[in-house]
Amino acid sequence: MFKKIVIPLMTLLLLSCVTSPTGRKQLLLMPADQVDTMGVEAFNTLKQETPLETNYSVNRYVTCVANAIIQVSNSPVKDWEIAVFRDESANAFALPGGKIGVNTGLLKVAEDQNQLGTVIGHEIAHVLANHSNERVSQEYAVQQGIELIQAVANVQTQMGQTMMGLLGVGAQFGILLPYSRTHESEADIFGLNLMAAAGFDPRASITLWQNMERAGSSEAPEFLSTHPSHNTRINDLQNAMNNALSLFQQAQTGGRRPNCQ
Could you tell me the residue range of the domain that residue 162 belongs to? Predict the structure, then answer.
């Protein structure tokens, strides 16, 4: 009996140990399709709770930036859904299952397509690096996957709010479970490379974080609440800039020149 239990468990752990885009070891216990289902449920719940921006030009602009990055992301999800929420907080997120949300408040801080590409690239990087799966696995490895999916659909419960937070959209429901600094730093560099490969100028990432710093703590985006300090983030981005600029030049030479307005 002991072998019947231990051997499958060891097999599961071995199969669940994967490597992130930066070479970091990860433990992913949740099946990808279940995490995707949770992401879709969370997105649908959020659309029911938050007004959507209906302005055509705003939606076209955000979709243009997001699609340019998705096209170079090698994402297994081909048809991403992008929504703009009428919310003054400077916030954005991406969810497993191919969902992206951008608040109208972010467009006041991210002043052009390159700066917006920095944020969207960062959020897509979280999804591609399986950060949601990693966090859910760490918190709920012993629970049945179906319970987690049901929790997302019942957001008013404590577990439902916790699950929304783990997926990255908990702030709207009164609880914020931010990504770790390891995840944030990983998404910064991976996202920088994504936006550069899509043809957005990676140097705009520095300007974006300078804008964030000038915004002050009272207007700081919720999704940055426990990110690395502005100075640390800017230094890390500058150290990674040469590679990003090389990707940017390759994108430009290859005809990737987004013109999102």
Answer: 31-253
